[in-house]
Amino acid sequence: MNLQAPPAKILVVDDDPSVRAAVAEYLSGQDYTVFLAEDGEAMRRILRDHDIAIVLLDVMLPGEDGFTLARELRRRPDIGVIMLSARGSEGDRVTGLEAGADDYLPKPASPRELLARVRAVQRRYGGRADPPAAGFCFTFDGWSLDPVRRVLRDPQGLLISLSEGEFELLLAFVENPQAVLSRDQLLELARGQESEAFDRAIDVQVSRLRRKLAGCLEGDAIRTVRGEGYLFAAEVSRA
Fold first, then answer.
1. What is the domain count for the chain?
2. Domain for residue 133, yes or no?
3. Cα–Cα distance for residue pair 170/226, rounded to 1 Å
4. What's phi and psi for 46, nearest 5 deg?
5. Which CA distances in Å does 216 have to 157, 169, 174, 194, 220?
6. For residue 207, what is the domain's CATH number?
7. Over residues 8-14, mean pLDDT
8. Which residues contact 171 (CB under 8 A, 6 or more apart)?
9. Residues 44 and 112 in one domain
10. Structural domain of 230
11. Last residue within a domain, chosen from 75, 101, 127
12. How many angstroms separate the first and last alpha carbons of the chain?
């Protein structure tokens, strides 16, 4: 069975025309449909008119910067965000992840690496290779996680918004409850083997997920095991 997702519609947001053209030429050659925008306003116009799956987002843009736009895009759980910027320090990368990006790729990036990152995000947004049957949910401490609809609800039934990275991380935890998972294991489970393994990425995602799970086990659902990794402490069942 072919599990490869079809090519996605990609929006490149960058104020440098030469960068936009180069990325568009390469990804178009890989059968992707590519749209181009020079700033936040152009980005919004294209998002209104087209079913964009992934946004490649520069940080240094005229007007609103990429971090601001990433926070806005995070309200669209159907869109993956890859930040692509010359600002490649660890601090900038952490800021990008905290803003809601699924990945952060420093410039200049090789075309092959960019393609690998795009495909990794596309797989995450296209669903898991072996999804559970429809109607199947994980439940823990009154919370409910639907891995097919990709929805998290709190004990009151309220929908909790998750970025794709946060969803994949929580899914990795509930599939391995009460087991210590190292950062490398979590990177592989939640982000895929092609993602760059740097520890702060997982730390940032865990911190964000903890805030959204406030109230679960009195705010201690995800516990740090010093020197080893993280443990999801709640008892998980399937309903």
1. 2
2. no
3. 20
4. -70, -40
5. 13, 16, 13, 32, 7
6. 1.10.10.10
7. 91
8. 128, 145, 147, 190
9. yes
10. 138-238
11. 127
12. 28
